[in-house]
Amino acid sequence: MEANRSNVLATILPKLVGRDRQGINTYPFETVWFDIVAYYRAGTLDSALNELSEDTGIDKRDAEIKVLNAAKGITPSTPATKEQNAQAVSAYQALENLHEDSKSSTESVKTAALAKLQKIVEQIKNDKSIVDEINKDEKLKGYLGDFTNNAADGLKLAETLEKIRFAGRTGGTLSRASLDKIEKFIVESANDMGGK
Question: In degrees, to the nearest 5, what angle opens at C-alpha 72 toward C-alphas 69 and 77?
């Protein structure tokens, strides 16, 4: 309200200075009255709400422009198909089962889980497109090293696969196609009764 009144006053004052020099005819009573009413209205709640509404509109427009500028170059991802969602759920469940089997006190269960996890890792490492994508991301690249360093540890292999899936699902550099392949490897290997 104060800013509105100050803006109106800034238009009135030069007219008053001109009136003293040039007489009443340069700033007639009707114009004075109109300016006084404008000055009064500029201090009302209605005027303040109008100003707030205008400022909010300007702020909204500025924010939208910022969002549009920030979004330049971002390609929206394609939503997953029903089949991809079903495969993701199956991969999650299979990986959870392999993770649990890797903790088993029964050696044959633990060994079978390790063989399946090693097979998944082998398939990932042998797929050039997946490896190329993983190597573009420092965090994911470290996971490839974890595969090598933990080749005989089923728990660590399962955890690393979970991290790669999570990174792929949360907007990392892993493409939908690579994530689909990894999940397919997980499901197929987990369902393979023969191990390797």
Answer: 135
**Which residue matches tokens 């979004």?**
71
The first and second tokens of residue 194, run together, are 């023969």
Q: With a cut of 50, list the residues of the chain below it in pLDDT.
A: 195-196
CA atoms within 13 A on the CB side of 174: 25
Tokens of 94: 């299979």
Using DSSP's 3-state secondary structure scheme, residue 22 falls into: helix
Range 131-134 contact pairs with CB under 8 angstroms and sequence separation of 24 or more: 133/173, 133/174, 133/175, 133/178, 134/164, 134/173, 134/174
DSSP string covering 50-105: HHHHHHHHHHHHHHHHHHHHHHTTPPPPPPPPHHHHHHHHHHHHHHHHHHHHHT-S
pLDDT at 91: 92
Return all residues near 76 (Cβ < 8 A) that are at least 6 apart: none
Whether the predicted model's global pTM rises above the 0.70 cut: no
